[in-house]
Amino acid sequence: MIAGHNRTIEASLKIAVCAAIVLSACTAAEATDGYFQYGNGARQDALGGAGVADSRDAMSLSLNPAGLVDAGSQMQMGAALFAPFRNYDATGTALVAPGSYDSNSNYFIVPNAAFSRQIDLDSAWGFALYGNGGMNTDWPAMVNTSPACSFFGGSPGTYCGGRAGVDLMQAFLAAGYARRVGAFSFGISPTFAIQRFQAHGLAAFAPFSSDPAHLTDNGYSYSYGGGLRGGVEWSIAPTFRLGFSAQTPMWMTGFSRYSGLFAGGGNFDIPATITAGMAYDAMPNLTLMLDYNHIFYQGVAAIANSSAITGPGVLGASNGPGFGWKDTDAIKLGVEWRANPIWTFRAGYEHNTNPVPSTDVTLNILAPGLVTDHFTGGFAYKVTPSSTVEFAAAYAPSQSVSGLERLGPPFPVPTPGSNIDISMHQYQAVLSWTYQFGTAPTSPLIHK
What we know:
mainly beta, Porin, 14-stranded antiparallel β-barrel, two-stranded antiparallel ribbon, 18 strands, elongated
């Protein structure tokens, strides 16, 4: 009876997961800093992800919950068409299929939504649905002529296990409250998170897994948890503001179907982040923004541990191999010109450090979160006094990382004379609609 009750709860949770994935900005890949989005919603996307000190819409909750007091009462709905293109080129390898190949699954629809409600002049609440992604690949079952594939009967695929790849999705439901006290605005946002993951084509690594039955080709596995975001905006002068926000790690349940893959028996927490920035109104209708962002990838063993396989039974162990990712730092620049009451134009640029070192390219064929530059732009058009349509577009030029094949026993470490080059470039277009329930009140201290 208890088992039946647990199955009912699990089924209900999975239904909720599916609903959240459909309604939120959860996708298999995003315009990314590693696998984090550089921005959420059309405004942030057009500004290169900047705006921690200049909040003007409900989606600001995903960046700095303190900004809710400047959004007014509004509803936002949007979607992005995202197109990431991933490639790897391998020569002289012992296990990885030699040749040049492109990953399949290159187009994704990415929905998002937010709502804010003004309580009074100096307080507001709201919620937002958004997501992360980027650890997604779908490599074909190409003929693999590498020497080690003879151990597996000449099986096809990148790692001699047939069609190979991973698919990670993360969806967030954030609720927030903000309060303005003098020149300061404070906000807090408890956030619930859902993850979905699957891997396939990794059967060749079974001898090195602590739980081979839960290593690969087990369909989707789900993970649940959450964390807390807080933020502050400080209006130093009517035309100059500072902002800061921080997100704790998202403490998540493990991926039970992949306990033999991820370090710690399937554990895959979501890294903490911090963002700080400034906004300056160069003119009453022209705002310049500069943000700094840091993502603590090294706080999650499954992401940060070296990818080197050092012996039998290490995959999935407490300190087992990961993807070798480093923390990332990003600088984001944005400019917004409110040309007239009808039209607003935006542009932005973001540069982030690459999390993938050359020593870990072999496993990161599965997760080439490499791009380091985003060029962005967009506009907002007020259709009626209450209704606004917004558009944003982004281009992330190709970035690549090369290195020797490094796997571990029984394969050479590294494979002499080998080279693996992984690369990625991205495009994204975002369309959204905002409905404002009345005029957003603002403090007389803030020139907005």
